Each structure stands twice: as structure tokens, then as C-alpha cells.
User: Which sequence fits this backbone?
């Protein structure tokens, strides 16, 4: 995700020499070196020492250690901290960075790797208007971004768009398997499923009507689509989706408590 954000920033015109990246794992730095001429180092504190914005693109399990390593530099420079780690609350970050720390929590998703991500952001009351604009510009470099009114809403965002790509992948897997059961070879079923998913998403994004109307236009009375849709409805698809997203949101809240 860090590489995607760096790539998006450079693509949108941000000077590469104004970006520093730190990673203790040398092969990761080598991959990044080949991608962009940014400043590289293995020491978090060294990178943070010259930063006005620090993006914490680390796993939740190592966030405490990573924050401790940059805390002095962040306090000294009054830098904005943007975290993309799931389950790590602003309160837990302030416990290490100090109560005056300006923090934005962000929940992106993996399509950011292709520049079509969907990111939700929440800022604490120490974040200035200009810092909010900067945070939004950074995440908009890899897709779309929006602000949520409270930190709890990030659990719902995690369930919806953070985990969402996996839901569509699962549905596509099921469609491909069903196509094979109907007699198609797997390559054909895969190609037709993926192109159909892409086309449907583009129609939904680019159309001036809502999803209900788009679905109605595809669903001829007494036709094949109507029969399939009715089967989905009879078997509780909506209830299944509601339950799955609630389970994901509950797990996001559990992770926040576990991570402290």
C-alpha cells in the first residue's frame, strides 16, 4: 500500500525527492528504488526527522513499535500522522505520540494498487484545515476519498469497502464455478465473468440512474435474469450480505480493543 501511495503521489506531480520511505527489510526498499527515485532508509526516525506528514503504512501488530520510533520527531516537527493500520485507534496512537498529535486514520482498500481505491478518513481535533486538505490529496492520488463523521464509522467502512474487494472476488469465483458446471471451460468462464464484472461496475459508476433501475433494465419479465434474481432473493442474499458485513464490522471493533 505504501508503494501505491508513493506511485500515486508521483503520478499526480508530487516531487519524488520530497518523499522519504523507511523499511527495515532491504528487498522492499530495493523494489521501491526501482519504482521511484525517492529517499530511502532503514530507520523510521531518520525518515520522520524531515517530514511534515508521516504515513504509517505498517501492520497493526507492529504499530506500537513503529510509533515509538518516530514519536520524538513527530512532536518536534508537529507533523501530521496518517495511519492506514486497521484497528489502531487515535487514542492508542496519542498515548505514544502525545495528546497534541495531529492524527488522521484512513481505511483504504487494495484497488489503490491500480489507482482505483476507495479510502475513508477521520481526523482528530488537532488536525488543521490545511492538514485535512493534504491528507485528502494524498489518498485521492490512489482513487477516491471521503471523510466520515466519527471514528466508529471506520468499522463500517472496513466492512464495506476495506474488505469489499474480497466479497466481489468470492462472488466471481462462484460465478466461474457455476459456469463450469453448466459446461463452459474454465478459461472462458473466467474471462466472461471478469469482463461482465468490469462492465457492470463501469455502468453503475457512469450511469445517471440508480442501481435498482439498472437492474430493472436488464431484467426482462419472465426471462432468464428474472429467474436468477428471484432465486437470489428467495435464498436470502440480502440477509446473507447484511450478516457478513455486520460480522466484519464487529471484528474491526474487536481488533481495536485487542490492539489497545
Assistant:
Amino acid at each position: 500500500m505504501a508503494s501505491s501511495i508513493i506511485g500515486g503521489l508521483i503520478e499526480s506531480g508530487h516531487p519524488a525527492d520530497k518523499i522519504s520511505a523507511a523499511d527495515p527489510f532491504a528487498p522492499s526498499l530495493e523494489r521501491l528504488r526501482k519504482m521511484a527515485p525517492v529517499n530511502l532508509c532503514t530507520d523510521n526516525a531518520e525518515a520522520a526527522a524531515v517530514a511534515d506528514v508521516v504515513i504509517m503504512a505498517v501492520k497493526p501488530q507492529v504499530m506500537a513499535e513503529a510509533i515509538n520510533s518516530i514519536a520524538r520527531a513527530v512532536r518536534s516537527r508537529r507533523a501530521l500522522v496518517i495511519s492506514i493500520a486497521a484497528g489502531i485507534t487515535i487514542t492508542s496512537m496519542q498515548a505514544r505520540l502525545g495528546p497534541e498529535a495531529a492524527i488522521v486514520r484512513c481505511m483504504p482498500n487494495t484497488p489503490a494498487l491500480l489507482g482505483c481505491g476507495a479510502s475513508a478518513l477521520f481526523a482528530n481535533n488537532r488536525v488543521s484545515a490545511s492538514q485535512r486538505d493534504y491528507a485528502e490529496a494524498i489518498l485521492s492520488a490512489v482513487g477516491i476519498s471521503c471523510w466520515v463523521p466519527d471514528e466508529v464509522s471506520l468499522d463500517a467502512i472496513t466492512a464495506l469497502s476495506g474488505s469489499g474487494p474480497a466479497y466481489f472476488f468470492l462472488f466471481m469465483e462462484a460465478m466461474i464455478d457455476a459456469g463450469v458446471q453448466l459446461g463452459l471451460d474454465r478459461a472462458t468462464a473466467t474471462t466472461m465473468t471478469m469482463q461482465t464484472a468490469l462492465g457492470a461496475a463501469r455502468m453503475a459508476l457512469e450511469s445517471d440512474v440508480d442501481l435498482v433501475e439498472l437492474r430493472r433494465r436488464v431484467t426482462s419479465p419472465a426471462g432468464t435474469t428474472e429467474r436468477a434474481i428471484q432465486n437470489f432473493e428467495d435464498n436470502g442474499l440480502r440477509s446473507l450480505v447484511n450478516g457478513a458485513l455486520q460480522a466484519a464490522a464487529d471484528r474491526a471493533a474487536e481488533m481495536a480493543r485487542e490492539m489497545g
